[in-house]
Amino acid sequence: MKLALFDCDGTLVDSAALIHETMRRTFEKFGKPEPRFEDTKAIIGLSLDIAIARMQGRPHVEQQDIEMTAHYKSLFSVVRQDLDYKEPLFPGIREMIDAICGREDLLVGAVTGKSRRGLDLVMETHGFDRHFTVARTADDCPSKPHPAMVTECCDETGMNARDAIVIGDAIYDMQMAKAAGAKAIGVAWGYASVDELIANGADAIAYHPNEILRHFS
């Protein structure tokens, strides 16, 4: 048996535009300079409070970051409706998930910096909730690259970390996988560059979702 653990934002769904607009409105509310799109993409994958602190050049979360996090969460569904934005799947993701979930030798899970509510919304929107056996979110564990999301998913499913494969687009996904003792597959269609993924521990790079399947043979 293998355990496939997928990141969500930038790996399964293209959510950068939605995240950036919500972040932009949050920074505006607190009188902060408008963040660049590149700055937003660079923190996708981190837990929200840490991401907001990092975007302001701080390594640690302060009280205002917590307040901005709460405001961001209150805005997210509003912005999603304003933009009529459903966090679309990247091309080829649905076919890849369907193929993986049809195999008896694989369990599928999610490890994401999203909130539990945010992940559930994506799963329900795209009909993936019936496919994913286990999940850990920013509500459950320390932020990536801490290994807890991976180790807790392994514990819940009775799997060893060496039989887990983390699939993600961020350097934090690669670092998390390595810290947990799992294999790391970087995806080239997300928000980090291939060079960044390799430098941070990717064992392989998938340039299209169908290439992920070969790593479960």
TrEMBL record:
Matches recorded under Gene3D superfamilies: HAD superfamily/HAD-like, Putative phosphatase, domain 2
Superkingdom, taxonomy of origin: Bacteria
UniProt-listed Pfam families: HAD_2
InterPro entries: HAD-like_hydrolase_sf (IPR050155), HAD-like_sf (IPR036412), HAD-SF_hydro_IA (IPR006439), HAD_2 (IPR041492), HAD_sf (IPR023214), PGP-like_dom2 (IPR023198)
Sample GO molecular function, one term: hydrolase activity
Entry keyword set: Hydrolase
Protein name: HAD-superfamily hydrolase, subfamily IA, variant 1
The organism of origin for this protein: Rhizobium leguminosarum bv. trifolii (strain WSM2304)
